[in-house]
Design goal:
single chain; alpha+beta; Nucleoside Triphosphate Pyrophosphohydrolase; three-stranded antiparallel β-sheet; 4 helices
């Protein structure tokens, strides 16, 4: 049995600042992308949030709107900043990079109009199925857990929220 290319990667993966959409349907499910199963990408054959790299001259909102249009043919009505994760790639000889997460409400009618332009599948999935049964990219899994937990009211809404700076 040969090793999966996630483990047997022979060339360095490209890392950059990035953005991702927590595409939330009215019933609380999340619209997810099944990533292609090919070498050269982060977490092939895993479920992940739609989004991607921030290009030079873009802020993360502009990048997310571009990515959603490229990946789904979808222009969101609303983006609400949720969180920023920082990744220290110093042990790999790279800088500290970030990934911004935005909550994007979507309707079933909007989903029906979307066309998959990247990845091998899309599906609306419950939080339980995502966290317990699916291979989900680790950073997106944590963002999904945070988003779900914030919606449950388990954590104090009175704590100061970090300011979002581009």
């Amino acid at each position: 049995m040969s090793e999966h290319h996630l483990i047997a990667q022979k060339t360095p993966l490209k890392a950059s600042n990035a953005c991702a959409a927590l595409l939330v349907l009215e019933n609380g499910r999340y619209l997810m992308q099944l990533r292609d199963n090919k070498p050269g990408i982060w977490y092939p054959d895993h479920w992940g949030l739609f989004g991607g790299g921030v290009e030079d001259g873009e802020d993360s909102q502009e990048a997310l709107i571009r990515e959603l249009n490229e990946e789904l043919g979808f222009v969101p009505r609303q983006l609400r900043y949720f969180s920023r994760f920082h990744f220290d790639f110093a042990p790999l000889g790279m800088p500290v990079l970030w990934r911004d997460f935005y909550e994007v409400p979507v309707t079933e009618a909007e989903v029906a109009q979307m066309r998959l332009g990247e990845g091998s599948g899309l599906e609306a999935v419950s939080i339980g199925d995502l966290l317990l049964n699916r291979k989900v990219t680790p950073y997106d899994s944590f963002a999904l857990w945070m988003h779900h937990s914030a919606g449950l009211g388990l954590y104090s809404p009175n704590l100061p929220r970090a300011e979002h700076k581009q």
